[in-house]
Amino acid sequence: MFPQGMKKAVMDNPKKLANLIDLVNLPSTLREFMGQSQSSRLGCFKRVWLYIKENNLQDPNNQNVVNCDEKLKRILLGKSQVELVELPMLIKLHFPKAPK
Amino acid sequence: MGKIPSGFRRAATQSTLLKNNVSSSPHQPIPPLKTYQNSPKKKPIKDNASITNKSTSPIIFDSPKLSDAKSLFNSLVTTSKNTPSDPRFYNSILESFSSVSSLQDSIFFLNHMIKKHPPFSPDRSTYHILLVQSCRAPDDPSLSNVQQALNLMTTHGFPPNQVSTDIAVRSLCACGRVEHSIELIKELSAKNCPPDTYTYNFLVRHLVKNGSLSTVNFFIKDMREGFNIKPDLVTYTIMIDNVCNSKNLREATRLLGVLREEGYKPDCYVYNTIMKGYCMLSQGGEVLGVYKKMQEEGVKPDLVTYNTLIYGLSKSGRVKDAKKFLEVMAEMGHFADAVTYTSLMNGMCREGDALGALALLEKMEMKGCKPNSCTYNTLLHGLCKSRLLEKAIELYGEMKKGDIKLETGSYGTFLRALCRNGRVAYAYEVFDYAVESKSLTDVTAYSTLESTLKWLKKAREQGLIVSPE
C-alpha cells in the first residue's frame, strides 16, 4: 500500500502539477499522432487512451493488453503490444524533465 | 477515514445553527424588511438575480458612464406611456446601474431620476442600494463612502435602522472588509442603532470563520463593555462549534463555563455541538457521556443528536452500542435518515463487516430511505478493504446507474483493489467514469491512476502480486 497522502501530493506539489498539465512543445513523433504541436502530459495520455478505445485496440482475450496499430507503435517505442499498466510510463518518456 | 461525511457535516453545523437562530429567540419579531437582508449576500449573482427575480429591471447598464445612464433613463420615461409608480421599478434600475458605476455616479443618477421623473419617490430600500454599493469596494481604505451613504439616508428622512446596520455589515463582510464592519458596528451602536441578534451573530460567525479567536473575543468584550450588547446562546453555540472544529477543547470547556455563568442553560444545539466536537477530536466514545448529561438535564434529543451519537460510537468502534440507538431513536419518533445509516455502515466497515453494511443498505432502501453518494462511497471503500471485489464492482455498477459521484478516497481504494486483482482495464474504465461524471478533477483522477499503476508494477516486480497471465 502506498501512503494515503499520495493522491493529494500531486495537487499540493506545484512542480509535479506543472509537469502534468503544462503545455509543452511535442517531439515530432508525438506531434504527428496528436495533430497538434503542443500538449500537456495529461492531455496526451487522455488522447492516446481515447484512440485505443475508439479503434478497439484492446486485446479481446485480455483487456489489459493493447495491440498497437502502426500509428500507435510509432509513439510507443515500436512495441506491437503494450500493457495498460505501462501506458503512463511510456507516455512520460516523451516528456523529459525540463532542464534547470 | 477519520472525516465526517459531508452530509453529516451539513446536518450538524448549518441546520443546527439556523434552527437554533429561530428557536432561541421566538419572541423577537423579524422586522418586515428583513427579507431584504439576503440580497447583499447574493452579491456575486446580483446581476442575474435582479433580472430574473425582480423581473422589472427595464434597463441593463453595461456602461459605467453617467451620461449614458441618464439618456437611457430619459428615453425610458419619455417613450413609454405607462411607467409604473412602484418604487421597486426604479430601485431595480438604480441597482442595475450601481453594479457597474461608482458611488458618486449612482448618487448623481438617483438625483437625476428624482428630478426627471417626479412620480418616483425614493424609499428606504433605494438608499439601501446606495449603502450596499458604498460597502462593496474591497480596497476602500476607510469608511468614508459608507458614512456618506448613511448621511444621505439621514438627510432624506430615512435615518439608518437595524436593517441598514445588517445590510452594511453583511456587504462589508462579503467583500472581506471585516475590520471595517467591526468599526461600523461600533459606530452605529454609539449612534443608537445597535445591531440586532442576527447581525451580531452573523458577524461573530464570520469572525470565527475568517479571523482569529482573539478578534472575536475582543469584539465581544468591546460590545459588552461599550454598548451593553451581550452574546446570547446562539453566539456561544457558534463559538463552541468553531473551537471544537479547530480542536481546541480547552477553549470549548471554558466557553461552556462562561455560558453557565451568564445564566444560559445549554439547549439541544449546544449539546449536539459538543458531541460533534468530541467526534472531531476522535473521542467519539465521549458522546455517550454528553447524551447522559442531556437526559439528566431534561433536554430532549433531536435527530441530529442521534445521528451524532451513532456517528461517534461507530467511529470509536462501538458499533454494537450504535446499533442500539437505531432502536432508541425509532422509539422516540425519529426516523433514521441517510446520515444515520451511513454512519453505522462506516462503523461496520471499520470492523470488517462490509457484508453487514451491504445488508443494511438493503434494509434502509426497504424502509424508503434513499442512500446518498456518501453512503455508496463508504460502502465501496468498505467492500474493497474487505477484499470483496465482485461485490464492490456490483455496487459501482449501481452508482454508475444512479450518476453517483466517486470520492477521492473510495476512488483510490477501488483502483488499487482492481489492479491488485489484475483488472487494469477496469481501472481505466473507472478512471473514465470519474472524469466524465466530474467526480474528481482530471489531475486528481489521473495522478491516482498513475500512482496506482506504478505501485502495481513495483509490487509485481517484487513478486508481491502475481500478474494474472
UniProtKB/TrEMBL annotation, chain A:
PROSITE patterns: SWIB_MDM2. Residues 19-97 form the DM2 domain. InterPro entries: SWIB_domain, SWIB_MDM2_dom_sf, SWIB_MDM2_domain. It comes from the Eukaryota. This is SWIB/MDM2 domain superfamily protein.
TrEMBL record, chain B:
It comes from Abeliophyllum distichum. The keyword Repeat applies. Residues 1-56 are annotated as: Disordered. Coiled coil: none annotated. Belongs to the PPR family. P subfamily. Residues 12-27 have a biased composition (Polar residues). Gene3D superfamilies: Tetratricopeptide repeat domain (1.25.40.10). Keywords: Repeat. PPR repeats lie at residues 161-195, 232-266, 267-301, 302-336, 337-371, 372-406. The keyword Metal-binding does not apply. Pfam families: PPR, PPR_1, PPR_2. InterPro entries: PPR-containing_protein, PPR_rpt, TPR-like_helical_dom_sf. This is Pentatricopeptide repeat-containing protein.
